[in-house]
Amino acid sequence: MKKLLSILLFFIPILGISQTSIYDFKVKTIDNKEISLSKYKNRVMLIVNVASKCGFTYQYEGLEKLHEKYSSKGLSILGFPCNQFLNQEPGTNEDIKEFCSLTYQVKFDMFSKIDVNGDDASPLYKYLKSSQSGLFGTGIIKWNFTKFLVNRDGKVVKRYSPSTNPSEIEDDIKELL
Prior knowledge:
Protein name: Glutathione peroxidase
Strand content: 15-25%
GO biological process, one term: cellular response to oxidative stress
Family: Belongs to the glutathione peroxidase family.
Shape: globular
Strand order of the largest sheet: 5-4-3-6-7
Number of helices: 5
Helix content: 25-40%
InterPro entries: Glutathione_peroxidase, GPX_AS, GPX_CS, Thioredoxin-like_sf, Thioredoxin_domain
Order of helices and strands: HEEEHEHEHEEH
Number of domains: 1
Oligomer: single chain
Radius of gyration: 15 Å
Number of strands: 7
Domain Thioredoxin: 16-177
C-alpha cells in the first residue's frame, strides 16, 4: 500500500492531477497522535524539517520568535524532525520534545520523526516537494531546516533553503497574513 501511494504521488504532478490542498494529509504529532492538517485550515503554515544536532539547529530560536509574534495573527509553524542527514536527529520523539522544550522553549507544533526523501518519505513531504521543487528543479530535500510556506488556502507558495534564517521569511509571512 505504501509503495502504491508513493507511485501515485510521483505521477500526480506529471499527469497534471493535484490534490485539493495540503489539508488532505494526516500526520502524527510528537506525542504520536494522528491529526489532519485540516486543523490548520485558513492559517498560514511554515513547515520545516528539523534536527537537534545540525549546524542550523539554532534556527529553532528564530522559528519560535515567528511563532510568538504571529501565531495569534494566523501563523502555524510545523516542525518535522528528520534523521536522514548525517544522523543529526538520532533521538526518540520524547528526546526531541524534551530537547526543543528545554533548549529553545519551543511552543510551536512538533510532529513525529519522518523521512523527507526516498521510498519511505512522508506523503506530506512528497506533496510539498512536488509543489515547490527546489534548486535546479529537483524535488529532493538537501538538508535539515528546508522550509515550505503555505498560504491560507493550503497552497504551497514558496520553498526556502536550509540556510535561510527564519527572520528572512518574515516579510513573506506578513504578506500572507
